[in-house]
Amino acid sequence: MTERRKIAVLGGSGAQGSALALRFAAAGHEVTIGSREAQRARAAAAALSTRAGEPITGADNRGAAGAAEIVILTVPYAAQRTTVTAVLDQLRGKILVDATVPLIPPKVSVVQLPEGRSAVAAMQELAGASVRVVSAFQNVSAAHLGELGHEVDCDVLVCGDDQRACDVVIGLCADVGLRALYAGPIGNSAAAEALTSALIAINRRYKVAGGAGIRITGIPKK
Ligand SMILES: NC(=O)c1ccc[n+]([C@@H]2O[C@H](COP(=O)([O-])OP(=O)(O)OC[C@H]3O[C@@H](n4cnc5c(N)ncnc54)[C@H](OP(=O)(O)O)[C@@H]3O)[C@@H](O)[C@H]2O)c1
Questions:
Q1: Would you say the CB of residue 102 lies under 6 angstroms from ligand 1?
Q2: How far apart, in whole angstroms, are the C-alpha atoms of residue 196 and residue 211?
Q3: CA of 185: how far to CAs of 21, 45, 123, 167, in Å?
Q4: Ligand 1, residues 13, 42, 74: which to mutate, most atoms within 8 A of Cβ?
Q5: Those residues with Cβ within 8 angstroms of residue 6's Cβ, 6 or more apart along the chain or in another chain
Q6: Residue 28 has what pLDDT?
Q7: Across-strand partners of 30?
């Protein structure tokens, strides 16, 4: 493990957040599930603790964000801005890892970026420079992440304006067996967000169990 980190997963009662919480806890990080309802967070945390074999705590989103050094956001696009706004004062000086994909049901296999721009870059604009926003996990399915011991055969694209924050997230990914690659400034998150709709279209056309992912070729081995 790179370094034991205090991680909060806002919306961690859901599919993607639960899967990430499980992986990070099993790798030895200190994980708190955040929810709009503290009781729902505690229930999800108890169930995940059993599976991870490590303690996971639960709190409301503000409490979870306040206690963490790294905050992961895993809520639906429609809830992204209100969730970040509600905890913004707890995020100063911290890394906010945003997994949001701006999917607009029912046409989730069609790219619908907000006014042609990135949903995650919009959070960097909202939060200002004191919050180190990093985009990650848009192209990795909860179904793959949620199975501990299952090797996740896809790369994670990591975008952000703060290189050191991106490196921390790349290290966290390595801790849970994921190869993550720095993919440019926060505006490039639009590419990762758009790719998800393409992956959903691929899943439908080829009946992909668990969800298709991406691999980047040509990276020199260290
Ligand atoms: N699922 C995947 O495989 C996957 C893969 C890549 C990226 N993502 C992205 O990750 C994010 C989460 O996806 P998900 O599938 O985990 O979503 P989800 O299960 O539908 O929701 C996650 C959590 O968000 C909270 N939430 C739901 N509606 C809300 C609302 N209206 N206001 C505030 N909070 C609300 C809920 O937590 P509480 O009720 O406990 O507050 C819920 O458990 C999305 O942006 C998605 O595009 C998902």
A1: no
A2: 10
A3: 25, 33, 13, 13
A4: 74
A5: 29, 30, 32, 67, 68, 69, 70
A6: 97
A7: 6
Q: What is the pLDDT of residues 6-49, one digit of tens each?
A: 999 999 999 999 999 999 999 999 999 999 999 999 999 999 99
Ligand 1 midpoint to CA 17 (Å)? 7
Other Cβ atoms within 10 Å of 168 Cβ, number: 22
What is the DSSP code string of 149-178? Answer: T----S-EEEEES-HHHHHHHHHHHHHTT-
Distance of alpha carbon 109 from alpha carbon 101, whole angstroms: 12
Pocket flag, ligand 1, residue 83 (CB < 6 Å): yes
pTM comes to 0.97
| Predicted local confidence at residue 1, as pLDDT | 79
Instruction: Quote the ligand 1 centre to 145 CA distance (angstroms).
Output: 15
Closest by CA to 97, choosing from 11, 211, 25, 220, is: 11
* Closest ligand 1 atom to Cα of 61: 41
81 within ligand 1 shell (Cβ under 6 A): no
- DSSP conformation letters of 83-116: HHHHHGGG-TTSEEEE------TT-TTS---GGG
